[in-house]
Design goal:
This protein is of the alpha/beta class and 576 residues long. Helix content is 57%, strand content 12%. It is built from 16 helices and twelve strands. The chain has helices at residues 8-39, 46-71, 80-104, 110-125, 128-131, 135-154, 159-238, 245-273, 285-302, 320-336, 394-405, 457-469, 480-490, 508-519, 537-542, 554-562; strands at 281-284, 306-309, 315-318, 342-350, 353-360, 409-414, 418-428, 449-453, 473-477, 496-500, 525-529, 545-549. Strands 1, 2, 3, 4, 5, 6 and 7 form a seven-stranded mixed β-sheet that branches. Strands 9-8-10-11-12 form a five-stranded parallel β-sheet, sandwiched between helices. Helix 1 runs antiparallel to helix 7, helix 4 (110-125) runs antiparallel to helix 6 (135-154) and helix 6 (135-154) packs antiparallel against helix 7 (159-238).
Length: 576
Amino acid sequence: MLPHPEDERTRRAMLVLFYAQSGVSLVAAGLLVPLHVGTQMDRVAWPVLLAWAAAFAALIALRARWKHQVARLPEDADPAPWERRAELGALATGVLWALAVVMAFDTRLVATQMYAAMLACITSVASINVMAPQPRAFATLLAPVSVALVTSFLRLGSWAGAYDALLALAAAGLAMALTLRHTRLLRESHALRFEREALLAQTQAAREAQTRFLAAASHDLRQPVHALGLLAAQAAHELRGRRAAQTAEQLQAMAQALDGLVESLLDVSRLDSGALQPQWRSLPLQPLFERLSTEYAVLAEAKGLQWRLRPTALWVRSDAQQLERLLRNLLSNALTHTAQGGVLLAARRRGGRVQVVVWDTGPGIAPEHHERIFQEFVQLANPGRDRRRGHGLGLAIVARLARLLDHPVALRSRLGRGSCFAVSLPEDAPRLLTEPHTVPQGQPLQGRCVALVEDDEAVREATVTLLRTWGCEVWAEAEVAPLLARLREAGARPQRLISDWRLGEGDGLTAIAALREAFGATLPALLISGETLPLSTKTLRALRVQPARKPLPPAALRAWLSAPSEPHAEPQSEPH
């Protein structure tokens, strides 16, 4: 017979399952007892029958009470006493059914012998499924019933009786074997369930740890890159017209390349960790196309390529930010690998869905490489790893975003003729679209007062130097309290608020709220972060705070500072 499980969780689960299933056997017993009393009224004395039925009724009530008590047991309860009660209750049940077999068995009537055998079979074999979680309890029920039936057959004193006794023993052995097999299956099932739960808990813990790591890594990696970009812009401004200006421009290009690599690596990690969750909404494609065209038409012209945009009135259902990121990677890939000809961005209906297509006239991709190009760091025509031709992560990010959004990407390509990447999206019904607010660029910044809260000294000094180069009056501190004190002492009133998200004390939203309380609730505020913000863009807009991610391009920062005094004038670099 199997010992009790060594794993306490499995042991308790089997105990709870036994008592939960015992309700079936209690109901069956409650029906069989009066039926048996009815069949034996003419053969057994009334006092004996009534005593037997009363004992069974008391036992059913006791086992029902135990069932309800076990259902409310605390997690740390010792299962041993309840296992013993299960065995005791099963033994009492077996003894009572054994008495019923003895009462029914008449050595002179074959019909009574068949009835006794059927009664033993029903009460024993039918209990296999119910009592399998506690095989010892089943054995204590089976033993007295089997002994009573075998003894009754042997009392016949014939070869037929002996044969029937042997069959009864064989049936008892088979019933016990089936019970033990069922018990093993139940234990393995519970063990697998607990193992799966443990693996899920470990996976969730690992995912949360990876999310925390990505947040910290994002912040710590972007801080120096952000400072480097600001310093490079400052150097380019100061060295304008000198020979060293070319070096400053190269420094800016290096900072942008480093930013692109860091951003791509973090994108891959975030997508693999499950940290990104789509924010679904209805989207018109035309505004997105126009926004992309503004940027990529300039890049195409710089390479001597033709840029074509096919206007569309189609609407889709997707995540606006992640869809734009997916298309940006496809367009960047097309421009990077196209030396002559051009790139086309268009949308069309196909099979009840919308296909957004990016065509290029590049070298094309051989069929055997169609799947491989979506792997990390794969660059078919860049064995020397020239960083000007990308890092080999763009299409890997596209593949992950496509899985995240459930937007399949199809590829058609001909060597020497070009490639077409088609993204399939669910179509949505058109809605009323208001005209976007246009932000005038290039307004003078001379004398504009800016309050800056940034606890990273290198970033703070680089930002202050660049803003003063643009003509701004800048007040900057690592914490909001000393900044408020300096502003009040000087009688200065800031016209723009800029704060880092992660500060030594509190966060950027707290700093912005304190500055607005002192100088006006409508002051435009920019919240810059090197990590994924825990607040949605919609929530930040409700707070009249514009988010931006590090490293923020100097041109985007200048555009935001130049915009009219409205809380929602947006820099061009959105946070992730």
